[in-house]
Write a structure and sequence with these properties.
12 strands; alpha/beta; globular; single chain
Length: about 325
């Protein structure tokens, strides 16, 4: 009942705060065999020309596609920057808390379960809008962040980059009990052990998607140690090394580059932030989203920063 009430409050707050938009979030059916039994929602700006990017945004537990899409800022950015937004939605029949099952092998293996359903949605959106298949990205919060790791590992050819917000390394858990341990206190493996899990997920040999990792230092749901383990996993996969640090919005930001000098991995450590996605309500550069449970106003909008790094506006 408490989770239901939280969900209703989130939906009400987001509905009140959401700006008027020319288009609407709409359901899409018949996108494929859908082995994970997920629902697909989509936001396509009116008059969108072909050749524009696609972003797949994955909600956290107790959230839904529309509430997360609007609250995180992704819907307003899709309208502002003109790209297609795919919003997969979990159903309670798969998970009572509506978490994506990032820890179940049947849902994280290439070609099966929820991962394959999300891949089918992505391909459908590319085909329907004539999108640039080289400019497709995925991001998610919490369980959605864990599933973002899955998509980057199992379908690296499909995505140019990913944003993992309060998420988990790929292959960290294979059961519900193990998942809680991965969340807090976290699992400590070597970079190669983490990297081997990703390399075993597909036969891909090309350039890996870029990975941006976001984590609050006061998160007691998904422990801050997961930022370190995620960075170790994806720098090992991308053969990337530390290339410098600075601050973004006053928060520590680290960059890792591959042998070609490309930024392969970034980390953002949001000092004092609990469990949730960083947002910065308001207009103008760097600002997007609406504050609500698990959508935390810290003066930096993760969706905007990700979109800038992916050149969505260009």
């Amino acid at each position: 009942m408490r989770k239901l009430l939280i969900g209703l409050v989130v939906s009400a707050l987001l509905a009140f705060a959401a700006p008027a938009l020319a288009s609407t979030i709409r359901p899409v059916t018949g996108f494929g065999s859908n082995p994970g039994a997920l629902q697909m929602f989509e936001y396509v700006p009116d008059g969108l020309p072909p050749g524009r990017p696609v972003v797949v945004a994955l909600h956290g537990c107790t959230q839904d596609a529309s509430g997360y899409g609007q609250g995180s800022g992704w819907v307003e950015l899709a309208e502002r920057w003109r790209f297609t937004l795919v919003l997969p939605q979990q159903v309670s029949g798969n998970n009572l808390s509506k978490c994506f099952n990032w820890f179940q092998s049947g849902d994280t293996t290439r070609g099966s379960g929820e991962a394959e359903s999300i891949a089918q949605m992505t391909r459908r959106a590319i085909a329907d809008t004539g999108a640039d298949a080289k400019r497709v990205y995925v991001s998610g919060l919490s369980a959605g962040g864990g599933m973002t790791s899955v998509m980057l590992a199992a379908y690296p050819e499909l995505f140019g980059g990913g944003g993992i917000v309060a998420g988990l390394p790929f292959g960290c858990a294979s059961s519900t009990i193990e998942a809680f341990g991965c969340m807090n206190p976290g699992k400590n493996l070597t970079p190669k052990q983490w990297g081997d899990k990703v390399r075993a997920a597909s036969a891909f040999t090309g350039t890996r998607p870029t990975v941006s990792i976001w984590q609050g230092t006061a998160d007691y749901t998904v422990a801050p140690a997961n930022l370190r383990e995620l960075a170790e996993q994806w720098t090992d996969v991308g053969a990337a090394t530390a290339a410098g640090t600075d601050t973004v919005g006053g928060f520590p930001h680290a960059v890792y580059r591959d042998s070609a000098g490309r930024v392969a991995v970034e980390t953002y450590s949001i000092t004092g932030m609990g469990h949730g996605q960083p947002v910065a309500p308001g207009g103008g550069d760097g600002r997007c989203g609406h504050a609500a449970p698990y959508l935390l106003d810290v003066g930096v909008c993760a969706a905007w920063q990700l979109g800038r790094s992916w050149a969505l506006a260009g």
